[in-house]
Amino acid sequence: MPPDDTGEEGAAARSPVPDPSPPSDDTPSDTPGNTPSDTPGDTPDDASADTPDGPPGEVTEEATDSDTEPEFPSDDGGRRLPVPTVRGKVEASTPDPAHDIEQRKLEAGVDHRFPFGRPGQPMGTSHPFTFGFIGALGVITAWLLIRAAASAQSVIVMIVVAMFLAVGLNPAVERLKRLGLSRGWSVAAVFFAVILFFAGFVASLVPPLTEQITALTRNVPEYVQQLQNNPQIAEWDRRYRLLEQVQNKISEPGFQSMLAERAYEVGRQALSGTFQTITVLILTLYFLSSLPQIKTFAYQLVPRSRRARVALLGDEILDRIGGYVAGQFTIAFIAGVTSYVFLQILGVPYALALALIVAVLDLIPLIGATIGAVIVTLVAFLTGVPEGIASLVFYIIYQQVENYLVYPRVMKRTVDVQPAVTVVAALVGAALFGVIGALLAIPTAAAISLVIREVLLPRQESI
How far is 382 from 385, CA to CA, in rounded Å? Predict the structure, then answer.
């Protein structure tokens, strides 16, 4: 190599382009005028790393993948996120996120808002095959969900009833919180009151039922003797041999097995009802204690731009459900107290138990009060015919007053639903889903009316 290769005069004579100074760490390599690509005809792709003794003045080192500094865009927290290089390949020295936890967090963009990394772009559905495949998966998923819901119908009903009770009891918890109690103690106090109500209801029913069953078992022979001594029964027995047919029917083996099956079914239904009641109470306790967290989680599923309005509407709907439950308890309390006073005046035995039956059944809209009135009237007829007739007249009048005066006014004040909507919603709900539908129909109608008034009607006015 000639000794003047490194001199300034020799370099200027042999190369029309000044020799670029090596880039420093603080100077980007792609600054205009300092890159090899600014030299005509000389690009990194044309240079060869195998010819270090090439013509002076030309770039002889190629910017390979291992020598290219990857670009790292920063996220909101200031961390640098690696991206592919110009050639679409990650630097070979970059750790694999499948093995390196720190690199995994770095590439995922983990920060305080996204502890598991930032969500990626949504999957494109423009291709017909992708669109059809996703549509088919949606249909299959919907079909499986419907089958699963049908299989777990009883569990879903218990969850819905428990959530409904929790939302309905939440206003009482909030009222106790305003008095200075913590939410835990408020929930405990409200739930203890519910347990006391159920315990009192059961305790008031067990002694009369036990006494009546015992009396019936003891007096069965006397009742049979009275039937045999009755002239009309004796005439029917002489003509149609009723007692003989009854005796033959009882002596059949199939009759005994049928009685055993019926007794087993009744016992199974009673045990299942007890288990479901306990399960609903436990779920109600859990839902009531964690209701603020449940509401917050549900609101976070809504897009951020609409979250505030949805939260306000949701709070109003929950308040109306709580008002509906409070209104139902008010109506049931009025029915129970009125029935107790009337039965005490009439002299019907077990007035407290019958009044509690009327109050509990009156929680069911429309049909509950009728069922309670029928039970009380039958017991009154067993006491005496005048008592039965008086009870029948009393409950006919009371039901008209409750259905057309008490119920609509209470629902209008607590739920803000028109009386006609209340009656129609209860009828439709009972026809579709039975007792559960009747219970949930009125708060559902209140929620729908609120959404229509606050969302649909303003949108229609703006069109």
Answer: 7
Report angle CA 362, 363, 364 to the nearest 5 degrees.
85
309: three-class secondary structure by DSSP: helix
Dihedral sign computed on CA atoms, order 395, 401, 404, 407 = negative
pTM: 0.62
Look at residues 376, 371, 381 and name the one whose alpha carbon lies nearest to residue 351: 376
Which candidate, 329, 338, 339, 341, places its Cα nearest to that of 407? 329
Express each pLDDT in 143-175 by its tens digit: 999 998 888 888 888 898 899 889 888 888 988
The residue-averaged pLDDT of 307-325 equals: 88
Q: What per-residue confidence (pLDDT) applies to 404?
A: 79
The neighbour count for residue 426, using CB atoms within 10 Å, is 23
Token duo for residue 310: 């949805």
Instruction: Kindly report each contact of residues 343-349 with a partner whose C-beta sits within 8 Å and lies 24 or more positions away, as own/partner.
Output: 343/376, 343/380, 343/391, 346/380, 346/387, 346/390, 346/391, 347/383, 347/387, 348/376, 348/379, 348/380, 348/383, 348/387, 348/391, 349/208, 349/383
33 CB-near residues (< 8 Å, 6+ apart)? none
C-alpha to C-alpha distance for 438 and 173, rounded to whole angstroms: 25
**403-408, long-range: CB < 8 A, 24+ apart:** 403/366, 403/369, 406/331, 406/334, 407/331, 407/365
Report which residue type is found at 18: P
pLDDT tens across 216-245, in order?
677 666 766 776 677 777 777 777 777 677
Q: Which of these, 435, 448, 444, 421, lies nearest to 365 by C-alpha position?
A: 435
Q: Give me the phi and psi of 179, to 5 degrees please.
A: -80, -5
DSSP for 408-435, please give it: HHHHHHHT---HHHHHHHHHHHHHHHHH
Other Cβ atoms within 10 Å of 79 Cβ, number: 14
Would you say 82 and 107 are in contact if contact means Cβ atoms under 8 Å apart? yes
Cα atoms found within 13 Å of the Cα of residue 189, Cβ hemisphere only: 15
DSSP type of residue 18:
P
Start-to-end CA span in the chain (Å) = 85
Among positive and negative, which fits the CA dihedral 408, 411, 413, 418? negative
CB-hemisphere CA count at 13 Å for 179? 10
Q: How many residues does the chain have?
A: 463
pLDDT of 432-449, one tens digit each? 887 788 778 888 888 888
Q: Say if residue 69's pLDDT is above 50.
A: no
Phi/psi for 396 (5° steps) reads: -65, -45
